Amino acid sequence: MIDVKLLRNDPGLVRASLERRGAKVDLDAIIELDNRYRALLQEVEAARAEQNQAGKRIAEASGPAKAPYRNQAIAEMKRLSERLKHLEAELAELRSTLDQALSEVPNLVHPDAPDGFGDEANRLVREVGAPPVFDFTLKDHMDVGEALGIIDTERASKVSGSRFAYLLGPAVLLEFALVRMAMERLMADGFVPVIPPVLVRGEAMYGTGFFPTDEAQVYRCADDDLYLAGTAEVPIASMHAREVLPADGMPRRYVGYSTCFRREAGTYGRDTRGIIRVHQFDKAEMFSFCFPEESDAEHLRLLAHEEAIWQALEIPYRVLEICAGDLAAPNYRKFDIEAWLPGSNRWLEVTSCSNDIDYQARRLQVRTKRESGTDLVHTLNGTAVAVGRAMVALLENHQQADGSVRIPPALQPYTGFDVLTQ
RNA sequence: GGAGGCAUCGCCUAGCCAGGUCUAUGGCGCGGGAUUGCUAAUCCCGUUGGGGCGCAAGUCCCUCGCGCGUUCGAAUCGCGCUGCCUCCGCCA
Question: Is 0.85 exceeded by the ipTM?
Answer without folding.
Answer: no
